[in-house]
Amino acid sequence: QARLFGSKMPQLDIAMASAKSVLTAKAEDWSECSSRLLIDTPDFLRSDSDWTTSPAKLSSKQTKSELLVLCEKRGVDCSGKKSEVIKALVSSFLGPDVPSDGVRMCHPGIAMGYDTELKNPAWCAYRLTPQEQRQTDNARKGFELDPALKAAGIQQTPPASYRNTGFDKGHLAPSLAMSFQKDKLKKMDRSPWIASYFASNIAPQYDEMNQRCWQELEEALHKYAENLPESDPGVFVVSGVSYWNREKPRRWDGDGECFLECPCGDKCDCRVCGKTFVTVPTFYWKAACDPTRGSSFAVIVENDPTSSTLPGGRAGWPPSAFKTYSVEDLQGFFGFQLNFPTECHTDTANVLVPEWNQDRGDPVIPSTAQHGNLSIHLIHLGGKRVMYKEKVWLRFETAFGPSADFHDTFTLEPPPPKSSETPGWKADCDSLIAQQLPKLKECSQSSAGIQFQFSGPNKGGTFLFKLSLTAPGGELSHNQWAARVTGANSPEMVAMGEGFQLLPSGSPDAPDSPDGPASLPNAPGHLDHFHQYWPFYATAFLLVFLCLAAFLRRGCSRHTVRERELEAALERERATVREVNAELQRRSMYPQQPTRGIEMWDLRQARR
Predict the structure, then answer these.
(1) DSSP letters along 348-403, please?
(2) How wide is the angle at C-alpha 403 spanned by C-alphas 401 and 406, nearest 5°?
(3) pLDDT, tens only, 292-305
(4) Nearest CA to 328 among 352, 346, 351?
(5) Residue 1: pLDDT above 50?
(6) Three-state secondary-structure class, residue 191
(7) Distance (Å, whole) CA 434 – CA 453
(8) CA distance 53 to 55
């Protein structure tokens, strides 16, 4: 719990059904959701009435005495009539854990846990019954703020904040599944479809992933429930988001990725967020249980924009989408409880919709037989040259995906110097900017490399971070960097990447400043960049020159042709004038022959 929710997360008491944790203004009573949507509510307390019935029909075959015994076991204060005892007991079932500062609320068709600190939903629980899923129409509408959160004075992420971020407004409870009896329930002001467009049901979701693998999963579950027998209780689903590090999540605004503060200034490509931004979860997850068949499974999908293009992924399908997990795996990765009952067999992944990701994936990379790719980028430095003892900022990215599941240590191994007497790369752990990295317990450096010890076993994914390092003072033995992830009882996984050429400070290709391009980005860095890429620039210049020459030649050719046409027309007019003058002169010699008509015709021709 501490890993997911922070140090303030208390030990959750199953009887914590206080009014403080559940919003009721502008929302339904919690018993409306707990009696219909939550899988942890026992079936003898569950209501089968649909959302046109208000309030839900609560009843139980258990006697009042039996119910009071259960109240005592759960620590619930139950008093009054049997119906009041049932309502109090039903309301004590709260579904999954919420963050320490989170709240719960019930909207028609959706039970929600909201993260008030990060202004995103923590999870949304819903139920897919065959009767309802046969009445859906998948209509769309605009997003709006949640009225219950607004009434409670709790801040939300406005839908307009998503503009130009590259992230979709990702539904946790899909609008397709919530569009049953849309018009009838809309008139009753109890529409699950409208609730699915509240800001409390959406979080930033990588657009390709949202529109491909995630949408296909939602549609597969919808069809599965649609084809169940009419009397079947259906499928209980919980969708949520999680973060590798809640204290330092990734953020985006309309100009790209941004930070609340930049300790390194512009040396590490750090930019402070504007007035509006979105907080981006590391993972989207979904857990489903079919209690009639005792089956459950979980899906965990990376929400990193580049994960689909890295080894093991496919467009709209991050590497983790090709693997399914048990509910217990999901809880172990992120340190919270979904509170699924034992009949869901949470220790086993029994996929209800195997066709969803079956035969879609490439082999998981890296593996014990094939290493992955480690991308290394020099920040504010063109090319691949670094001078001896230069302090530089580097950006590292590598996709371990499911290969790093349950691992807890990441080791970065720079190439060593040729001479054993020359100090190697020296990392400044205090400079670490973990754009996407599990929460660290410790950062240290030894002869084995730069080691990041995580706070516990984590779900594998795409590691992305920036780090300031000082280069060795001598030549390297090779140019390959390596990254390794290790964990107890788990095979080691490796990724490899090409590094940089080291140059002595006296080299003509090396920068003159001892501070290097990090402090003078407009001088040596640019020179080094042009030095490496001059063939490209020369070719581009030549192509531009040839295109310009061809354009001018074509224009000149057109100009020459036009001039020739005008000169020919002028020459024809001159010849006509000469003929007219000759005719006039001839006729002046014979005055007895001229006629008025001919003279006028000649004059008109002459004027032309």
Answers:
(1) S---S-GGGTTT-PPPPSS-SSS-EEEEEEETT--TTEEETT-EEEEEEEEE-GGG
(2) 100
(3) 999 999 999 999 88
(4) 346
(5) no
(6) coil
(7) 13
(8) 6
